[in-house]
Predict the structure.
Amino acid sequence: MRPSVARLLNILVPVKRAVDYAVKIRVNAQQTGVDLNVKHSMNPFDEIAVEEAIRIRERLKETVKSIKVVTIGPPKSLDTLRTALAMGADSAIHVEIPESAPSPEPLGVAKALRAIIDRQKEAGGVDLVILGKQAIDDDSGQTGQMLAGLLGWGQATYASKVDIDAEGKVATVLREIDGGSEELKCRLPLIITTDLRLNEPRYASLPNIMKAKKKPVEKLKAEDLGVDLTPRLETVKVAEPPKRVGGGKVESVDELVTKLKEAGFTAV
Amino acid sequence: MLRLGAVRRVSRPLVRAYATPASPHALVLLEHRAGVLDSGSLSALTAATHLGGQVTGLIISGPDGGSVVAKAKKLKGLTGLLHSTSELYSAPVPETVSPLLTALLGNTPYTHVVSATTSFAKSLLPRVAAQLDVPAVSDITSLEHDAASNSTTFTRPIYAGNAIATVKASSSIPVKFFTVRGTSFTAAPSDDNTSVDVQEVDPVAVSDSPTEHVKTSLTKSDRPDLGVASRVISGGRPLKNAETFQATLYPLADVLGAAVGASRAAVDAGYADNSLQVGQTGKVVAPELYMAFGISGAIQHLAGMKDSKLIVAVNKDPDAPIFQVADVGLVADLYEVIPQLVEKLKQ
């Protein structure tokens, strides 16, 4: 009997460097954006994406040929790539943009990712792209869907469970939807975006952090990919949201009930 | 094939004076489930009317969509209604619906594509926008259209609602896609005296969709829907387990006729279903009354509820950040407070 032909999967994981989720952000004085001289880290949803790629390899072993991470961002975004490499990705691509350049929009990022996927054709192509469902800075939640649209690939957004059948090149994905969940059967190549519940990302161990320093990082510029990352929407202003002032505390349940009744909230 | 000719005839003026910008014409995706129009879509319709032009609704449905169409015809603010029905749309996925939208938008005068910020629309709209090579604006809270320059300015929360960005989509973006935060606009009412004409649009066949819907599991609940409830009772980590969560919060929710929500901690620990999560990564609510029990008030949670009218917080920790936004705070053990509240509210 002939051994079955190994299907080799190549996984691409785009990641973003963003202001750390725990930082209380401040709008700058010029009202053009937020103060970025604060702690940054990998977008939490992207950590989940990296983790999922690694878990898929842990399940499918050699069937996963490569896990490549990519970021589009200023020089410091390299740290984010190193974090992903330390978690277990094999190699990275850094599409570097100047520190002063405005943050690219999802459509620009999706186009850059499409160009990167095109360039991977010689290396066996890309079978699976796993992205976070949204970046916690711009909260757009569009890039994965846009990339799927540009490529004409299937998409499974807000994934909470992913099961890959490498042999059949299909994935079964459970996704979070309003009011519950939904199961999809998707043909590869596929775009997946991660929900919080997909997994619990691992911490990189010190030896892995050291090893990650030796893993290859390819540097590219937007021009190399032939994409224009200039935003098409104009950010007119960034402002503080209206301040909400706490109304103080009450001492007892009775007072609380009185306040509720005063405001018109009674039993129905 | 789409009957694009017919669509065009109704919506485009026959003669247009030179250099007069096109008046806005929004296409609003009207979502529905089990014969009921999604309330978020009704808010999206209201937002679309703020553009100041024509507003065409779009209903896609399986073969049983007739009752929803009948309801949608009466919606105030609509100037037209398109209906496309197919087995494909009974359990729609973006891959099967996006060809219909691209075909509709390819040769018609729509200037805006509008939807609620629902999980379906969030999956669909960016896909279509990218195929038309235009950006999209997510989860807007206000908008203003300038007909003279054909530009639309939106506000939307960024950084989990800790900043509000004002973004402008200029005339260089021919079709402006945006999703609407439901809690920022009132729902468009129905009017029995109005009835717009319904135009049937042929579905676009997709023979080889890369994704296939297998099944949907919805969380059953007799309580009001969390996204639109006027009162929400929410619980956090101290609720211990799913049984305690229900036994503790549900009696109070029942007394107040409230929906039940949860913090991420409570959801992650399995006390409550995912669909009940309030916050940046869950639902954004803005009820008349939001009561938070045992919720510390992390940035991500506040992002989902700080536009509520009256916020009540009960927490043992006097320094919990939730007290900074609460209108009424009580430092106490929720297990002692809730039974008393139930009793006293009943009186």
Remarks:
- Residues 242-256 of chain B form the longest helix (15 residues).
- The two ends of chain B are 63 Å apart (CA to CA).
- Chain B touches chain A through 93 residues (CB under 8 Å).
